[in-house]
Amino acid sequence: MYRLITKKVLSSVHKLFEVDAPLVARKAKPGQFVILRVDDQGERIPLTIADADPERGTITIIFQEVGLTTQYLGAKESGEYLADFVGPLGKPMELPSPGGRVIAVGGGVGIAPVYPKVKALHNAGLNVISIIGARTREFLILEDEMRAVSAELHICTDDGSYGQHGFVSDILQQFLDDGKPIEEIIAVGPLPMMRVVANQTRPYGVKTLVSLNPIMVDGTGMCGACRVTVGGKTRFTCVDGPVFDAHQVDFDELRARAGMYLDKEKMALENCRCGGAH
């Protein structure tokens, strides 16, 4: 059992938990993730490690309440427990060479997994330009944290309620067009956003990385549920990723596989709301 040390409500749908998991915290590196279960009857869900504190023995996770399991998780309070908390899983992020310009792009809840990557780059002495966006100001998370580790922070909202009116790709385009070299771009967010960024940067030949979060079950490469096609070859996100070359990812296949269980997820949520069996 893993105790929830701290709970913060970041928005109406975004929650932050600090979890007492000293063994995970001791080994965790930026880019890695955990798989947890809320209770013994729950499904396994992968969540990126947003932060780790080896001295306190805690792992920070941030998630958006979308389906039944994340709503169960969001209903937990400090002092309560999770049944399972397995990690760190996946390959740590590799740092680019010092001196180059790095741009980090986070969309929606994707700001949470992009934050530890930016923090690692900042701690390594790199100056990172960060671009974060959300549908509306209410759903913008980690603004202060991102500002503290970024040389520049640019903000946008789809509805124009905060920052620049538009999308993260609009701001990114300005940097692609200014003629200054870009060492690397890291983009994390909804699949459509990452796909747009991949297509946007491809003509410029700029190295672009994305962090994928497909359907996942065991997290050890045994089940094959998280398979993705990268560069024409099958890769398993849990052991080969989750960070991949955006220009090599088959986003059509990834989108199709990500939507395989949407009808069942909606049914589970509706049954719960109607008082049916979970």
Quick structural summary:
With 278 residues, the protein is α/β, with parallel strands linked by helices. 28% of the residues lie in helices and 31% in strands.
Give the key terms.
31% strand; 9 helices; Elongation Factor Tu (Ef-tu), domain 3; alpha/beta; seven-stranded antiparallel sheet; seven-stranded mixed sheet; single chain
Written account of the structure:
It is a single chain. The protein is an alpha/beta fold and 278 residues long. The protein has two domains: 2-89, Translation factors (Elongation Factor Tu (Ef-tu), domain 3, Beta Barrel); 93-207, 3-Layer(aba) Sandwich (Rossmann fold), CATH 3.40.50.80. The protein has helices at 22-27, 68-75, 111-123, 143-148, 168-177, 191-201, 237-240, 251-258, 262-273; strands spanning 2-9, 14-20, 33-37, 45-53, 58-64, 81-82, 84-89, 102-107, 128-134, 152-157, 164-165, 184-188, 208-211, 227-230, 233-236, 243-245. The strands form three sheets. It has a seven-stranded antiparallel sheet. Strands 11-10-9-8-12-13-16 form a seven-stranded mixed sheet, with helices on both faces. A hairpin with a 2-residue loop joins strand 14 (227-230) and strand 15 (233-236). Helix 5 (168-177) packs parallel to helix 6 (191-201). The mean pLDDT is 89.
Largest sheet: 7 strands, antiparallel
Strand percentage: 25-35%
The number of helices is 9
Alpha-carbon Rg, integer = 18 Å
* CATH C-level category of the largest domain: Alpha Beta
The oligomerization state is single chain
The number of E-state strands comes to 16
- Helix content class: 25-40%
Strands side by side in the biggest sheet: 6-1-2-5-4-3-7
Low-confidence region ranges? none
| CATH fold descriptor of the largest domain | Rossmann fold
Total individual domains: 2
Order of helices and strands: EEHEEEHEEEHEHEEHEHEEEHEHH
| Alpha-carbon distance between the two ends | 22 Å
The CATH architecture designation of the largest domain is 3-Layer(aba) Sandwich
How confident is the prediction overall: mean pLDDT? 89
